[in-house]
Amino acid sequence: MSQSRNKIDKFFLFSVGILTIAGFVIFLSASLGLLAQTGSNFGGSAAKQAISLVIGIIFFFIFSKIKYTWLKKSALFILIGAIGVNLLLFIPQFALHYNGASRWLVFGSLSFQPSELLKIAFIIYMAAWAQFARDRLNLLRYGLLPYIIIVGILSILLLVQSDTDTLVIIAVTGLAMLIIGGVKIRHMAIAAGLLGILVLCVILLRPYALQRVKTYLNMSTDTQGSSYQINQSLIAIGSGQMSGRGFGQSVQKFGYLPQPTDDSIFAVAAEEFGFIGSIVLLIFYLMFVASAFRIANRAPDIFSGLLVIGIAMLVVIESFVNMAAMLGLLPLSGVPLLFVSHGGTALIITLMMAGMVANVSKYGK
User: Which residue from 61, 171, 312, 342 has the fewest beta carbons nearer than 10 Å?
Assistant: First the structure.
């Protein structure tokens, strides 16, 4: 049994710190655009994000102290709890409906997005199951079948919320964990095929999803309607050129670029910091992933290793999907740019997950 070093991996701690600071700086600049678009108070928006940041940092240090073995023992209860919280969305008194979706729970002046809990609960449970199954993961009943059952349950919850993007990210993260865990490639091909069929059905049956695909395939049509956001995003990114307009100097965030603090925040960053700044931000994410993979490679057991892998894959997949959508490389999605976008729940959960990775780093071989 490895003994705790009682010190968090410095490379990982640095990567989390630099992403957190850079993300908050980018958010402060992007939130100025809300003044022109919605008349929102800049101070109020910045204060809410700052409060979420402080809470997230507290959670980071709490979970960096809680030994990861507690998560393994509590994996099933954590998953059941996350599912239970998401079921509250079916109670009208708690659910907030916005743009045709019910993704937020509201308790008085507080609101949060329960699907964020599903992400980390799923990762914890899959890592714990892999530890339990161990050498049997290559068998259908211990590898592919449990994955399909869990993703199927989460599919019902997330599709009711019209949150297809989160479902795909969770499913792909789970696939990556199972591949590293030792599941047969043939089984993974079956799982990928089933996921592809599910996504295709959603695209064909839900008009908003079909419209996203049509916009992606032909961005020049309806530039004042369905293609407006992606075209404004590309204008912002192109305007940044090599070195950018400078901090706070984005033009597109003032009344042109929709949701400058949310889905479109990468476009604001690219306009202000240019190609060089965008590459630097990309490097920050790669540093996070590289340091996490190093921790996973030194992890004392299967559970802790796959827990770290799952968290790293979730962060990089979700963030890269956001950036790729703003560049027109993928259809537009509603996923945030983690560490950067507005959204207290996502920021708090992301820092909490980073705290779990930090804890595992203390017990590395």
Answer: 61
Give the integer Cα–Cα distance in Å for 236 and 252.
6
The residue extents of the domains of the chain are 10-361
Report whether 45 contacts 31 (CB < 8 A): yes
Which helix (H) or strand (E) element contains residue 355?
helix 344-361
8-13 contact pairs (CB < 8 A, 24+): 8/64, 8/358, 8/361, 8/362, 9/291, 9/294, 9/295, 9/358, 9/361, 9/364, 11/287, 11/291, 11/294, 12/288, 12/291, 12/292, 12/294, 12/295, 12/354, 12/357, 12/358, 12/361, 13/358
- The reported pTM is 0.91
For 141, other C-beta atoms within 10 Å of its C-beta total 9
Rounded (5°) CA angle 42-31-318: 140
Angle at 49 (CA atoms; ends 46, 51), nearest 5 degrees: 110
Give me the mean pLDDT over the 100-115 stretch. Answer: 76
Identify whether the C-beta of residue 211 lies closer than 8 Å to the C-beta of residue 226: yes
Measuring CA to CA, how many Å separate 345 from each of 13, 95, 140, 246?
Answer: 21, 15, 35, 29
152-205 tens-digit pLDDT: 999 988 888 888 888 999 999 999 998 888 888 888 889 889 888 988 988 888
Token pair recorded at residue 162: 């019209």
Question: Which of 22, 24, 25, 42 has the alpha carbon at shortest distance from 33?
Answer: 42
What are the angstrom distances between the C-alpha of 33 and each of 28, 40, 200, 325? 10, 9, 36, 20
What is the sign, positive or negative, of the torsion defined by CA atoms of 355, 123, 313, 336? negative
In whole angstroms, give the CA distance from residue 345 to residue 55.
10
Count, residues in the chain = 365
pLDDT per residue over 169-182, tens digit each? 999 999 999 888 88
Q: How far is CA 175 from the centre of its chain?
A: 16
